[in-house]
Amino acid sequence: MAESNDAAAAVPSASSSSSSSSSDAADAAAADASADDNAAAPDGSFRLYLAEDKRNLDCRFYSARYPEIESLVMVNVRTIADMGAYVSLLEYNNIEGLILLSELSRRRIRSINKLIRVGRNEVAMVLRVDKDKGYIDLSKRRVSPEDVAACEDRFNKAKAVHGVLRHLAERRKLYLEELYERIAWPLYKKYGHAFDAFKIALAEESSASSSSSSSSSSEEEDPFASLDVPSDVIDELKLYIRRRLAPQPIKIRADVEVSCFTYEGIDAIRDALFAGIAVGGGGGEGQSSSSSSSSSAIKIRLIAPPIYVLSTMTLEKEAGIALLQRAIDVISQKIGEKGGKMDVKMAPKAVSLKEETELQAMMERLEMENQEVAGDEPEED
Prior knowledge:
This protein is α+β, with helices and mostly antiparallel strands and 381 residues long. It folds into 3 domains: 65-143, CATH 2.40.50.140; 154-245, DNA polymerase, domain 1; 250-369, EIF_2_alpha (Alpha-Beta Plaits). The chain is 47% helix and 19% strand.
């Protein structure tokens, strides 16, 4: 009976050994496959990532694994604790950092939720970095408004570059970090920011297509010419750059009040407004602003007398603002010569979709108020 029990006990032991050996074999096969995937390609091509977990798409924005002390970083607030706020450094592959409670504000903190909220992006300054333990202490109170604007601009550019490379890695099943090592980080080093190199490539390509420039000059200007990257990858990368980074038209708007109580009155206002339209190449009297084929045509719409809206679409914000300012100066001069006056209610600026929606709603409301309703007719005797 004892021998039979020993034999029975030996069966699961053998089964366990067989299962363990098969598991080890599977792990070894997976390791070999991973090693094959990670092996550098001898012909200069990129390694492929065949798994479905998308770990190949994890990568920081910059070549340095940790930020420098006193540098500015964009963080996302994860949790708020007694010690402070735990955040993720968005530019460094979401590594964790801590904004200490004493570094949230220069003033006395009455409510921490008014200073910082979970899920919101914030600009912080790096105080300490422990690379061995992975600790990063940050400060929010030492960041000035100018620092916030500069950091947001740099982050938005880096995010655009990251989006282009991530899309390329996802489509081709490549390692995102390898794309950064062979494309983005060399461009950061040479041009200061990879986004600037992408914009140069976009401008060079558009100028080459519109003019018959020599191939040698375009090769010198092409930021990707010095990179050791297959041509098919570069072609697809340029395609994504055209889609993601092509300049989008910006709407510039200004609100003015034009009035004239002299004999010429309405005619003087009309002539002055047409003179402003002509600044943008929109023609003069007898032509509507919408008839212009110019990309910087100026349109003028009546909100309610004597308030008018000047607007233009442009690819360059500063150029559009300058154009509307010239139109305002011309209108002011013309209406002044006729004894009228012009006041600027809102200086030229780039407007968002929300502001345009509010303007349209206000114009519709004013139009409804001006419509005739029952009882407006004069009473008959």
